Structure formats: C-alpha cells, structure tokens
C-alpha cells in the first residue's frame, strides 16, 4: 500500500467486511460514527494507494466483498437525511448544541462516500460490481448535476465567508451548501466513469441515462454554464481542491479536469454503438448537441484528439433528419433505494429529528472528549498532508498558510493576526481536540 500506510491489509479487510447500511434514525449514533470513521480511513487509504500507483487493494476489497451496493445505499440515505431531517433540526429554535461537530459528521458523510466512489469507480470492475444499484447511482448523479446547472444560473456556489452574526446551526447550513457544490463535482466524475462502462451496462441503465434523463443534453448545459469557472475582478478562476484558483493567462487555454470529464462522458454516450442504438435524436436533442460545435476548437482537439470523431458525428448530425420520440412499450428496471427509503420514513421526519436531538446530537462533555480522541486518531496529520491536493490555506483569510494552531495542530493560519480573529469560532473545537490528544 505504499510507504505511508494508514491501514494494514488485514485491517482494511476487516473494515470493508463490516460495512453495512444504517436506518436514517441511527445516523449519528455510536455505531454509525464508528463506520463513518472507518469509511474515512478507507477513503484516505484508497487515495494513498492511487497516488503511489502500486495496486489498489481498497477497490479490490470492496469488489470482493460486494460492498459497492452498500456504499450506494448509504450515499442515498444520507442525501435523504440532509433533505428531510437536517432542515427540521435547523428549524428547532431552542436547539443550541454545545458543539455542532456531531451533526457536521453526518452532513459530511455524503462527501466522504462520493469521494471514495470517485476514487474507486475509475476501475470498470467496480461499476460492474454495483449491480442493480448503478441505476440508483445514475439517478443520484443526475440530481446533483441538475442542481449544479440550476445553481450556475443563480450566481454560482456560495462563498466560504460566513457572517459573524450566524449562530452555529446557521453556520453549519452555510457549510452544507458549499459542500453540496463540491459533492456535485465529484458526482460528475463518477458519472463519467459509469459512461466508460457503457458497453457492459444493462439496457435499463442505458435507457435511464439516455431517454429518462437525456444526459447528453444535460452535459451540454454543463459545458455552456461551466459552473467550476468564473470571472472575478477580470481574472479567470477555476474551482479545484475545495477552493477557487486564479488561472494564469498562459494556462487559460488548457483543458480543466472537469471540462475533460464532461467531454469524455459525451464522447462515450454519443459515439458508442450501444448508446447510439438507444438514443433518440429528436429535434430538441439535435438543437442542444449542435451547440457543441462552437466549443470544438483546434486547441481543444490538440488536447483531446479523439474528439475529432465527435466533430465528425456532429457534422453528420447537422444534415440528418431528426427522429420522433420513441413510444415503444419496454419493461425496465427502475431505481428503488430512494423510493424505498422515502416509503419507510414518510411522515416520520419530525420523529427522526426529535429522536436524534435527544439521543444523538446532545452529547455530554465526556462523550465529546472521547469522540475528539477518535477524530485525532482517524485524521492523522501525516496522512492528511499526503492526501491533500495542495498546500494548506489560512482558516480565516484563505491565503497560503505555514503555521498551525499550536494547541490542537489541526487549523492552519498565515499569520498570528488571522489566528486571533478566528479564535472565537475555532475555540470550542480546538479545546476538544486538545483534550482528545491528552486523553490518549
């Protein structure tokens, strides 16, 4: 597993075997927290394995033990919790938790799972091992990308800066909104990896992608809006590594990773024989797809030469007759995880929130100290630095940072002035983390 190991091979096997689905009511419970920590370890180890390119045992273990469907169900369950239960918690006026980190862990759980799936779905056997849940995953990705397009039409993702007047739950809502943007970008990569397997996907999955959701047209809209790029002060910025970066003029013609994912997904969905046999090129689809010709510049073709085939396809499409919508009677599988979870919990959202308020999200000081100790063991600094996509940034002003909080060693700052200004917000988490280290 490389020079820097978080998990021994035998330990990773035990953690993967133990993965299971939790009812919405149990999210945030002690058993759920233990699995969340295990998932974070698997996540970090999978990134380390991919980075050193010496075999990827986490991906192999997930396939061997048939745990990809479990991860997909957990992903959709926490998505539903965030939509149905989290807003109820935020509306409770007299709920003022000492520390919102236990709730943040549940909110962050979706990001942890989609990040792990993005890392392992690069391998075709992982997509195949998802079995029927690939339908649910396609629906999940469609929901995220639809929100991404809608958000780009409303001014883009929220900024990280929070108001000093926000209470802890309002601040948590702001963090969840920003996290949603990053999750959607991960979902785009997962969807692209699914399209790599278009020759082995079931007819139901292909129909879902091409007919029900019309993903090629949605991907065209993503290219048009490019929500991961923006102009700020006359300068081009791109979102990567959880923050916006200014792109140097000499780099502005370079294809970004996310644009590349969209182009590859379009190539797979429009040019593979299996997809072409299923995709109905209506006048609506034709009008959308022909917009791609404006983006297929010589500079782009130099970077992705295979898109010359897509350019030829579009030239032919411009002259071709459109097809009327197909009205064939087809028996197809449909995704069932979201519908099943909603059916099981319909009318119970308030009860689930009340139970979690009383038994999960109001821990004692002792419970918080024990949890802080486990967090410190899970998020080892040497591993976090190894998997970090870039140098750390100041928690207050986002400038590149070189100094850590001397007490908890978790937060970074560029200068002492920023640390002093950020102290009120950081204080409670810092004290808990320091207590956790002393309790070891």
Task: Describe this structure as you would to a colleague.
This is Zinc finger MYND domain-containing protein 10. The protein is mainly alpha-helical. Helix content is 61%, strand content 4%. It has helices spanning 9-17, 30-52, 57-64, 68-84, 86-91, 101-120, 124-129, 133-152, 168-195, 203-212, 215-225, 257-271, 273-278, 283-289, 298-303, 307-319, 337-345, 349-359, 365-378, 381-387, 416-439, and strands at residues 229-232, 235-240, 243-246, 403-404, 412-413. Strand 1 and strand 2 form a beta hairpin. The protein is globular, with a radius of gyration of 23 Å. The chain starts with 8 loop residues before the first helix and ends with a helix. The relative contact order is 0.10.
């Amino acid at each position: 597993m490389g020079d820097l190991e978080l998990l021994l091979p035998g330990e990773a096997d035990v953690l993967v075997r133990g993965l299971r689905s939790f009812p919405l009511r149990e999210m945030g419970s002690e058993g759920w927290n233990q699995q969340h920590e295990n998932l974070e370890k698997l996540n970090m180890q999978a990134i380390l394995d991919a980075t050193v390119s010496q075999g990827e045992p986490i991906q192999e273990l997930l396939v061997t033990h048939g745990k990809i469907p479990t991860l997909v169900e957990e992903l959709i369950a926490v998505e539903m919790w965030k939509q149905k239960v989290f807003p109820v918690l935020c509306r409770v006026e007299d709920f003022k938790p000492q520390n919102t980190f236990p709730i943040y862990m549940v909110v962050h759980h979706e990001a942890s799972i989609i990040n792990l799936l993005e890392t392992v779905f690069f391998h075709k056997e992982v997509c195949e091992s998802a079995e029927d849940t690939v339908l649910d995953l396609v629906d999940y990705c469609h929901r995220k990308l639809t929100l991404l397009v809608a958000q780009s039409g409303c001014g883009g993702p929220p900024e990280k800066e929070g108001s000093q007047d926000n209470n802890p739950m309002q601040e948590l809502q702001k963090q969840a909104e920003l996290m949603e943007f990053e999750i959607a970008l991960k979902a785009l990569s997962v969807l692209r990896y699914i399209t790599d397997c278009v020759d082995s996907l079931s007819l139901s999955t292909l129909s879902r992608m091409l007919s029900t959701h019309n993903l090629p047209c949605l991907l065209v809209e993503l290219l048009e809006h490019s929500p991961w790029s923006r102009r700020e002060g006359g300068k081009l910025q791109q979102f990567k590594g959880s923050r916006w970066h200014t792109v140097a003029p000499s780099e502005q013609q370079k294809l970004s990773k996310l644009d590349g994912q969209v182009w590859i997904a379009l190539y797979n969905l429009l040019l593979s024989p299996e997809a072409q046999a299923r995709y109905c090129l209506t006048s609506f689809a034709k009008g959308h797809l022909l917009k791609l010709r404006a983006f297929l510049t010589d500079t782009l073709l130099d970077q992705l030469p295979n898109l010359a085939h897509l350019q030829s396809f579009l030239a032919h499409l411009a002259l071709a007759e459109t097809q009327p919508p197909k009205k064939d009677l087809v028996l197809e599988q449909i995704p069932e995880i979201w519908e099943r979870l909603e059916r099981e919990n319909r009318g119970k959202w308030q009860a689930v929130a009340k139970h979690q308020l009383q038994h999960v999200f109001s821990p004692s000081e002792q419970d918080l100290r024990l949890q802080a100790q486990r967090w410190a063991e899970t998020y080892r600094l040497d591993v976090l630095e190894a998997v970090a996509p870039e140098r750390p940034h100041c928690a207050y002003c986002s400038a590149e940072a070189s100094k850590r909080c001397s007490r908890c060693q978790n937060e970074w700052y560029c200068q002492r002035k920023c640390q002093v200004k950020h102290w009120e917000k950081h204080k409670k988490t810092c004290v808990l983390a320091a207590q956790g280290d002393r309790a070891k």
